[in-house]
Amino acid sequence: MRAPATAAPAVVVEGVSKTFHMPAEQAHTLKERVLRARHLRGGSSFVALQDVSFSVRQGEFFGIVGRNGSGKSTLLKCLAGIYRADEGRMLAAGRVATFIELGVGFNPDLAARDNVVLNATMLGLSPAAARARFDEIIAFAELEEFIDLKLKNYSSGMLVRLAFATAIQADADILLIDEVLAVGDAAFQQKCFDVFGRLQDEGRTILFVTHDMGTVVRFCHRALLLDHGRMVAIGDPELVSEQYLRLNFPEQEEEERGQLRSGDGSATIQQAWTEDAGGGRRTTFLTTEHCIFRARISFAEDIEQPNINVVWVNGQGQNVFAVSTLAEPGGSGSFRAGDVVELRLSFVASLAPGEYKVSMVLSRPGSGLDFMDRWEQMFSMLITSTHAAGGLAELPHELTIEPAPAVRLERTA
Prior knowledge:
Blueprint: E1 9-22, H1 30-35, H2 37-40, E2 44-57, E3 61-66, H3 72-80, E4 87-92, E5 96-99, H4 112-122, H5 127-132, H6 134-141, H7 156-167, E6 174-178, H8 186-201, E7 205-209, H9 213-219, E8 222-227, E9 230-235, H10 237-248, H11 254-258, E10 261-262, E11 267-275, E12 284-286, E13 290-299, E14 303-304, E15 307-313, E16 319-324, E17 334-335, E18 340-348, E19 354-363, E20 371-384
Parallel strand pairs: 3-7, 3-8, 5-6, 6-7, 12-20
Antiparallel strand pairs: 1-2, 1-4, 8-9, 10-20, 11-13, 13-18, 14-17, 15-16, 15-19, 19-20
């Protein structure tokens, strides 16, 4: 998705740093703070942001990604004015609305009606405007039957629906959104996607923190990757997503990856990767794209018809796609000591959007457990889609709805 290149900056961040000081002991009263001041000055420091600089143009959908503790939410809270940066400056050209923490601004002892007015007022709406939009907010959140229930009795899913439905009513130029899709079912997520599309059409500026790389690739004009408070990458969402996956599964973690590998060494998986139809190596694919899995295998001894298996595992640990040479006509073939071969597996990436770990197993014929080389979680793949999808796969299909033919009923004597 191309960013609005000619638009003026809506958000400017220059050299921002933020450090949190954590005392060795906490003071719970003013007396403790005074009498134990020397002890409280000790402790440690945590650097949350280090010299972060970027700008976001008006009308741009800007993704902020990174592992837990990378500084994503701290950055958004600095932009929202919740935290004050220790160094640098932050500018926002327009009204800012935030959706950062679930339930912030809500009173658990009040019912939905009072909370909507309270929260919407905090977002900049007048009480009259908030009351006028109440029915629309409740309908979006699908909470019509629970408007008189106190919020302390709401589930987390109900809370996030109400909070998001209220936040999007803000007449703001810039929206700061943190992990709105982390809670909620598929139907609510589709509503969020629809809202994102509408906000884009309206030219709103959105800074969006998420762990969902599919959403980043689908909606964002650009993305920023943070790690340990530092900027690692900024730019094309697909490239940033691939770097995020590499951070989550770094090549340098040889010891950890070695624990996921076993076998007698009579055959070895030297290398494995995925590429597109043009031969370019990639780990991010749309559900409609052609994907080619390749692996280079070497043999240390003669062997007839080894079993070769490749498996894709989703985030819930389910094997959603598996290919075995046992099921292929002719099997895998015959190999001699010293042979080096390249396996090629071509398929359409019609899995459900999400992150997948790719594993591969070489085993002796006749037994799937006599491993020559078993390499689990060799690398990660990211599957994205242009629309919300459910289930384990997104199979090619055609759906039509037509008038039903008239049914002629005959009476029997």
